[in-house]
Automatic annotation (TrEMBL):
<keyword id="KW-1133">Transmembrane helix</keyword>
<dbReference type="InterPro" id="IPR051598">
    <property type="entry name" value="TSUP/Inactive_protease-like"/>
</dbReference>
<feature type="transmembrane region" description="Helical">
    <location>
        <begin position="226"/>
        <end position="243"/>
    </location>
</feature>
<feature type="transmembrane region" description="Helical">
    <location>
        <begin position="118"/>
        <end position="138"/>
    </location>
</feature>
<feature type="transmembrane region" description="Helical">
    <location>
        <begin position="52"/>
        <end position="74"/>
    </location>
</feature>
<keyword id="KW-0472">Membrane</keyword>
<protein>
    <recommendedName>
        <fullName>Probable membrane transporter protein</fullName>
    </recommendedName>
</protein>
<keyword id="KW-1003">Cell membrane</keyword>
<feature type="transmembrane region" description="Helical">
    <location>
        <begin position="14"/>
        <end position="40"/>
    </location>
</feature>
<feature type="transmembrane region" description="Helical">
    <location>
        <begin position="158"/>
        <end position="184"/>
    </location>
</feature>
<comment type="similarity">
    <text>Belongs to the 4-toluene sulfonate uptake permease (TSUP) (TC 2.A.102) family.</text>
</comment>
<dbReference type="Pfam" id="PF01925">
    <property type="entry name" value="TauE"/>
</dbReference>
<feature type="transmembrane region" description="Helical">
    <location>
        <begin position="250"/>
        <end position="269"/>
    </location>
</feature>
<feature type="transmembrane region" description="Helical">
    <location>
        <begin position="196"/>
        <end position="214"/>
    </location>
</feature>
<dbReference type="InterPro" id="IPR002781">
    <property type="entry name" value="TM_pro_TauE-like"/>
</dbReference>
<keyword id="KW-0812">Transmembrane</keyword>
<feature type="transmembrane region" description="Helical">
    <location>
        <begin position="86"/>
        <end position="106"/>
    </location>
</feature>
Amino acid sequence: MSNIMAELVVTEFILLKVLLGGIFGFCLGLTGVGGGVLLIPMLQLFCGMSTVLAVGTASLISAMVKINASIVHVKASNVSWRQVCLLFIGAVPITILVTQVVVYFNQHPIHGELTQSFISMLVVVVMIGSLISVIYGAKKAESCVLADSHHSVKPSKAVLSGMFCGSVLGSTGVGGGVLLLPILNNVLKLDIKKSIGSSVVLALFLSATAAIGYAKGGQADSATAIWFVVGSFVGVPLSAWVLKRLTTRAIYAITLAVICSSLVMFVFVG
């Protein structure tokens, strides 16, 4: 009897992860937000993970899910490849460096607990900053028409933006939607749909880079990641169907709602 109950608990836990993966995939495809913002609170609240383990697992899930999400956005022509390449050049080296630093200090017998606290605080700061940035972008969209993907932007500006994103994503797992999306939209002047698609594609590469670093340090739960990815296969295609039917204003509103909900979850876990 006890074995049957144990199997039922395990099954329910797996179904919960699949459901959470579906929610994550839907939010990711619809708003570009989801990687660290949604996953870290979910993994801590429902899976009982520590902050750094949640960051590593979130990076792994994000990389795996964004393969599917990236294909969806590429087919929909929602990607500005020029901006993606420039951001990539600046972001990847910094992501590798910062990931190694976090893993090292997290495993340090003296600095491990301080590292957990610092990363948690940094995640909250990034979420709040991203919330403000998206609000700014929404107000700007109401007052003027943003330039298209051919808007002229200095390459150095895009590379520096990539370095900033890489440092944040590498240390917190947050940055795919809540950081890359506002930068692409407000700093590099892409429209909201191009910004969403480009942020998903770029975050795929950055999340994969971070995930490799955390996995090498034993800070990634691959089994949990797989079940989340299974659920995302339903959420991502559904989001693409919904996205075609939404106005720019509605997309901004949903993005703000996702970030706010994640921030509340993260604070509640803390």
